[in-house]
Amino acid sequence: MPPEARAFLDEPAEALEGLVNLLRRYWAVGIEPHWARIRALLEGDVLYRARRAALEGSSAMFTELHPEVTWDEEQGVLTRLKIGKHHDQDVEPAGRGLVLIPVAMAHPKLMMVTDPSWQPTIAYPPAAWRTCGSGIPPPTARPSPSWWGRPGRPSSASSRSR
After folding, report:
1. Sequence-separated contacts (24+) of 28-33 with Cβ below 8 Å
2. Helices 12-26 and 3-10 meet at what angle, rounded to 10?
3. Peptide bond into 108 cis (omega under 30)
4. Among residues 57, 84, 46, 53, which one has the least CA distance to residue 68?
5. Is 17 buried (19+), middle (13-18) or exposed (0-12) by CB count in 10 A?
């Protein structure tokens, strides 16, 4: 077991505090400076798909959802989504509805919940992300070990930087 994971068994409160501090730092450095653009991109995709559904019917929401997604419908009701190429799965809403979630941090991948005991869900990259890019630079380096301190424990600096 990696030492970082072992810390969650040996000293769970301290390890959790270290993880929370690390995630706060990641937010502050990696996401927060770009959050306004990311949020606008995600909200824009929701509005784009809702407008298409209102003006052209529900199947229009799936147009351009992702190159691997195709759908079947009967009398205007979605009966099956076919996720091909890398996933090769069918999503059958069967009256349970379908949750579509635009996700900025997954480009170009799809993420799905297909278990019959859960509501079918597809997380996908927003359309504008594919056509105009995000304008957000990719991460250039791994987090410094000083952010974490000793494995499983927050460093004194990260403990104070709340």
Report:
1. 30/139
2. 130
3. yes
4. 84
5. middle
Q: 149 vs 12, 20, 101, 105, CA distance in Å?
A: 15, 13, 35, 27
CB atoms under 10 Å from CB of 35, counted, come to 11
3-state secondary structure (DSSP) of residue 101: strand
Distance CA 87, CA 80 (A): 14
Tell me which amino acid residue 36 is. Answer: A
Give 70-122 pLDDT, tens digit per residue.
776 665 556 566 666 555 666 777 778 888 899 988 777 788 887 888 888 88
Backbone angles phi, psi at 153, to 5 degrees: -130, 140
Rounded CA-CA distance 120/72 in Å is 15
The two most distant CA atoms of the chain are separated, in Å, by 62
